[in-house]
Please model this.
Amino acid sequence: MFALQDLHLQGLSLLSPELTLVTTALVVLMMDLIWKERDSWRLGAIGLVGLGAAALQLVSAHGTQGTAFGLVSIDNFGGFFKLFTSAATGVCIVFVMLDRRERRHRIGEYYFLLLSAAIGIFFMVGTYNLLLLVLGLELASLASYSLAGFHKGEKRSAEAAMKYVVFGGLSAGVMVFGISLLYAVTGTLDMRVMSGALAIDPVGEGVARSLAVALEQSPGMVALAMILILGGFSFKISSAPFHFWAPDVYEGSPTPVTTFLAVASKAGGFGALMRFFGVLFVAPDVGEMVAAYRNEIGMVLALVAAATMTLGNLAALRQTSLKRMLAYSSVAHAGYVLVGVAAMNQAGMEASLFYLAAYYFMNLGAFGFLLYFSGVTGRETLESLRGMGPKAPMITVPMVIFLVSLTGIPPMVGFTGKLQLLYAAMGPAEGLQLGWLAVCLGLNSVISLYYYMRVVRVLFLEDSDEPRPEPQVPMAVFLCLMAFLTVWFGLFFTPLLDLARSGMDLLT
Amino acid sequence: MGVEAYMGVAGMLFVLGIVCIISRRNILYVLMGIEMILNAANINFVACNRFGNGGVEGRMFAIFVIILAAAEAAVALAIVLNVFHLFQSVRPSDADMLRD
Model:
C-alpha cells in the first residue's frame, strides 16, 4: 500500500495531455459563463492554447512507454492519433471562428463540445482496455451528436443530429454486445491479455483465457463477437455497411462539425480499430491458429474496404452539392485507409498511418474551401462555384491542389499515400491474397478523378456573372499553407514516413 | 442453470432489440430498441462474471453501460424533442430533407 501514492502521481504525469485538455474544456465553459459575450474569439483562443499545450506535451512524450492506472497506455501509436486529433480539433476551432454563417450564440458550448469530443478520442485511441475504449468512444460520440444538432432552429441540423444519434446508438449497442461476447469467451477486457502478450490482467482479477484458447473452445462465439465489434468500429470510420449515416449527417451538420467528424473522429475510429486488430491478430508471437484466423479477418476487412470505396465513389459521382460530394469522398477515403489495415501486417498499418496523415492536409484544406464559399455565397452547390476560379485565385488554386491530391495524382501527398497502400496490398500478411484489392484501389482512383475534376472544371472552365467573392485573408493563408504542405510532403515524404514508422510501435 | 441460459436470454433480447429498431417507424421505439441491446450486453457481462470468469471487470462494465445508456438517452431525447418542435413529428420518415 505504501507505494500507492507514487503510483498515482506517476499515472497522472503520464496523463498530462488529457488533463490539459480537460482543464481547457472546463476553463472554456466557465469563462463563457463569466464573460457572457456573443461571438467571443477569446474562448476560441483559450481552446487553441490548450490544444497547443497538449500537442507540445505529446511531442515531448514521444518515445515514452508506460501505463497509467493499468488502463491508459502511453505509446507512439496513441501519440500519433492524439497529435492528429489535437491538430484537427485546433483547425476546427479556427473554422468556427472564421465561419460567417455561425450565428455566434452559445459559442462557448461549441468549443466545449469540440474539446470534449477530442478528449473522448484521446482515451479511445490510448487504451488496451475495452471498457475505456467504449467510454472514450461514447464521450466522443455524445459530444458529436450535440454538435451535429448545434443549430437548434435549423431543420437540416436537427435531422442530421437525429440520424446520427440513432445510428450511433445502434452501433454502440452492437459493439458493446460484441464486447460482452468476447468477455464471455476470454474472461478479460484487456486486449493484451487476450492476445497472450500479458500473462496477468493489469486491472481484473478473473480467470483469463487467451484468444487462441477461446478460438479452440467456441469459434462461433468469437466470430460473432468480431463481426459485431467490427460493426461498431465501422460506424465510427463510416465504412460499409454502416456508412449510410455519413452523407446525411455530414451535409446537415455545421461545416466545422462536418470537418471534425470527417477528420478527427474518423481518425480516432481508425486508431481504436487498428489497435484492436493489430494487437489481437498482427502481433508477431500470435499462435498458428490465430494466424489462420487473422487471414480470415483480413479478408473481411478487405471486402469492407473494397465495398466502402466503391460505394463512396459511385455515390459521389452524382452529387450536385459540394458538401455532400466531400462527404461521399470521405467515405471512399475510409475505404482506402482500410486497405492498409486489411493487409494485416506492420507495413500495411504504417501505410494506413501515412495515408491518414496525408488525408489530414488535403481534407482539411477541401473543407476550409467549402466553409469559405458557403459563407460567401450562402450555398453549398457546385453551381454556386461556377467561374469563381480566376476571381479568387488564392482560394481556388489551393483547392485544385487538394482535389488533385485527393484523386492521388503525383506529385501530391495523396499520391505518395496511395502508393504506400498499393504496396501494402501487394505484400500483405503471409497467406493473404490482396492483389484484387490493389486493382480495386486503382480503379476507384480513376472513378474519383471524374468527380474531383468536375469541381475544377466548374471553377475554371465555366463563366458566370457572379461578382468577385469578398476575400477572407486568414482562410486564404490557411489554405495556401495546407496546399504548400500537400505538395511539400508529396515531394519530401520522408518526415511523414518516419512519423508513420515510429507511430507503429504496437506490434513489437 | 448455467451461464448458457442467461446468454440465451441475452441473445434473444439482442435480436428483439434489432427487430424493434428495424420494424418500428417511431423514433422513441428505436431508442428503446437500443436500450434493449445495451441491456442484453449487461446480462452477458453480469452472468459471465458470476459463472466462470470471476473478478469484477464484468460487473464494472455493466455499471458503466447503465450510465452510458442514461447519458445517451438524455442526449437522444433532447435531439428528438428538437426534431419534434421543428417537424411536428417523431417519425424519421417525416424528416427527410437530407437525401440524394
Residues 40 and 107 of chain A are 7 Å apart (CA to CA). The first helix of chain A runs from residue 4 to 14. The radius of gyration of chain A is 22 Å. The longest strand of chain A covers residues 66-68.
